[in-house]
């Protein structure tokens, strides 16, 4: 059997960590580590890497992997005994042997179902029982789809509240030549200004310094235009009303041990998230969130917006 017909391959990755490689017939691929339930690679039909992973990323538990698509659950900031961004990104997930039916993905052959459940150790810091399921699927044309389901399995009748994000690190050629469209005129919380609320005044978001903003009540479609590469990432989301935009820029990059000094120039985080209003589940209730990303050729002339923008607004 030729390698391109092997849609799902279980193998070992860096430092012997278990991973799954997804492949589609057009030679698109994705790589998912069971550590963190984390996508660490997404390549198009030309073998070009579309996600950023730092050259200094640690693949040694318990440190989270810097790059790809970390899963942030059950929180996004440090509170109490819970670590920043929660614990899902530095736990070992399992292959889900009894996943819920996903009729929308029935035509996709390259997918893997993962599950993370409560442990007695974790209940000391977050005293709840849950099932956190994740399906990572690669579409026939190379689209990357992540679907998460979180169920409250508490037996004591208690509800729980959580926040969630797909912390997607996109690989870009030159951050100064990147623009994000679809978030203009929206309110945002600026984490560099103590979470103060502002309204976006620009026609599109561009980058010339550190950015850490949470855009609120965002549309289901967002576009990230990489002018240098003439490529547009389309991010489509459901169940995740907010969007985080982050780049550490030079000063913060140099302070991060698992991040190269100049790597900020080649990455941008745009995260489908639920930040402002947390999700509350009663026992037996389930929440579902989804993110789909694709990469398409694009170009735009100076002072003219990419024509794709008209499609995105449809």
Automatic annotation (TrEMBL):
Sorted UniProt keywords: Isomerase
GO molecular function ontology, one term from the record: carbohydrate binding
Residues given in the record as substrate binding sites: 66, 84, 89
EC nos: 5.1.3.15
Reaction(s) catalysed (UniProt annotation): alpha-D-glucose 6-phosphate = beta-D-glucose 6-phosphate
Gene3D superfamilies: 2.70.98.10
Gene Ontology biological process terms, A to Z: carbohydrate metabolic process
Matching Pfam families: Aldose_epim (PF01263)
Gene Ontology terms: cellular component: cytoplasm
Broad EC category: isomerase
Family listed: Belongs to the glucose-6-phosphate 1-epimerase family.
Protein name: glucose-6-phosphate 1-epimerase
């Amino acid at each position: 059997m030729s390698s391109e017909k092997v849609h799902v391959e279980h193998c070992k990755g860096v430092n012997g960590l278990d991973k799954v490689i997804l492949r589609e017939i057009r030679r698109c691929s994705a790589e998912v580590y069971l550590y963190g339930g984390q996508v660490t690679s997404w390549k198009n039909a030309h073998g070009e890497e579309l996600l950023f992973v730092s050259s200094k990323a640690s693949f040694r538990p318990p440190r989270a992997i810097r790059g790809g698509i970390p899963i942030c659950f059950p929180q996004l900031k440090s509170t109490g005994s819970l670590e920043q961004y929660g614990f899902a990104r530095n736990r070992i997930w399992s292959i889900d042997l009894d996943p819920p039916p996903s009729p929308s993905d029935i035509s996709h052959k390259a997918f893997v179902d993962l599950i993370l459940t409560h442990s007695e150790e974790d209940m000391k810091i977050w005293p709840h029982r849950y099932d956190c399921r994740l399906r990572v699927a690669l579409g026939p044309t190379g689209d990357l789809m992540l679907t998460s389901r979180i169920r409250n399995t508490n037996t004591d009748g208690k509800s729980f509240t959580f926040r969630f994000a797909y912390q997607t690190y996109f690989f870009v050629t030159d951050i100064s030549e990147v623009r994000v469209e679809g978030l203009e005129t929206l309110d945002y919380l600026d984490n560099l200004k103590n979470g103060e609320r502002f309204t976006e005044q620009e026609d599109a978001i561009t980058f010339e310094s550190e950015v850490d903003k949470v855009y609120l009540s965002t549309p289901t479609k967002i576009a990230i235009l990489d002018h240098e590469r003439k490529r547009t990432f389309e991010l489509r989301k459901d169940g995740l009303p907010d969007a985080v935009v982050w780049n550490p820029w030079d000063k913060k990059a140099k302070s991060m041990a698992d991040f190269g000094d100049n790597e900020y120039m080649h990455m941008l985080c745009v995260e489908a998230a639920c930040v402002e209003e947390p999700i509350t589940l009663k026992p037996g209730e389930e929440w579902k969130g989804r993110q789909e990303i694709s990469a398409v050729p694009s170009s735009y002339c100076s002072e003219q917006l990419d024509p794709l923008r008209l499609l995105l607004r449809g």
